[in-house]
Specification:
Elements: H1 2-63, H2 74-85, H3 91-98, H4 109-127, H5 130-137, H6 143-170, H7 178-204, H8 210-232, H9 234-240
């Protein structure tokens, strides 16, 4: 019986050794899998974070309107006004008048054009009474009186032309179109011609008041000219600020 018992004991010991080897192999396998699982988990987490950041950036970019540039400071507003005034013949007077306007959160060259037209019309309205004042001031009728009466009529016409231009910006569903801009340019050009014709008539009559009228007319001439220049370049100016005619 001893040989048989010894054989059985030996067999049991062998099974026990095999079980220990299997447990050791399983533990080793688990130990090898842990770093792999951690690496994969970290990679998936990193991918999710990157995806979330990219998604947030994309949503932010779409919520920002490219057609509505904002002004963050008074200096940026001033720079925008300079961009507008650089297309004019009298940029100094243009900037001086328009930079005093209240800065809008969204810069719009069309609003600046409106403001320029209003300034032009205000100066023309103030100037319109000058010819009559000069006629009444003269003690005796003079050859210049006829020229001054012409000036009075011409200044009224110039004011009407600028007023037509302002009205065109308000009329219709679409404020500005290419055809409207052409009409408005014609009216503004006519207003400038009226001013020049007034001065030419006074100079032809050798009027002693020509210098006085010229000095008084200069602001009207500058602002009317500036308004025409802004109008002539309105499409390009709007594009500079990522806007279209509206």
């Amino acid at each position: 019986m001893d040989p048989i018992n010894n054989f059985v004991k030996g067999y049991d010991k062998l099974n026990h050794l095999e079980d220990q080897a299997a447990v050791a192999a399983s533990s080793c396998s688990l130990n090898l899998r842990k770093p792999l699982v951690i690496t994969i988990s970290f990679f998936l987490l990193f991918t999710l974070i990157i995806g979330a950041v990219v998604g947030a950036l994309v949503r932010y970019s779409y919520t920002q309107s490219p057609e509505s540039p904002t002004l963050s400071s008074s200096s940026s507003y001033a720079d925008s006004i300079k961009t507008i005034c650089n297309v004019t013949q009298y940029p100094v007077s243009c900037f001086s008048a328009l930079s005093n306007l209240n800065a809008s959160p969204k810069f719009d060259p069309e609003l600046i054009l409106k403001a320029s037209l209003k300034i032009s019309l205000a100066h023309l309205s103030n100037l319109s009474s000058l010819p009559k004042t000069l006629i009444l001031r003269a003690k005796d009728p003079s050859p210049a009186a006829a020229a001054l009466r012409d000036c009075e009529s011409l200044l009224e016409d110039a004011s009407a032309q600028v007023n037509n231009t302002m009205s065109a910006m308000e009329a219709g569903e679409e404020m500005l179109t290419d055809s409207k801009v052409e009409d408005m340019r014609t009216w503004m050009s006519s207003a400038i011609t009226d001013l020049e014709t007034c001065l030419d008539g006074l100079e032809e009559m050798n009027s002693g008041v020509v210098d006085e009228v010229k000095n008084a007319m200069q602001p009207s001439k500058e602002f009317t000219s500036n308004s025409l220049a802004i109008l002539a370049n309105i499409k390009v100016l709007l594009q500079n600020f990522n806007l279209s005619m509206h």
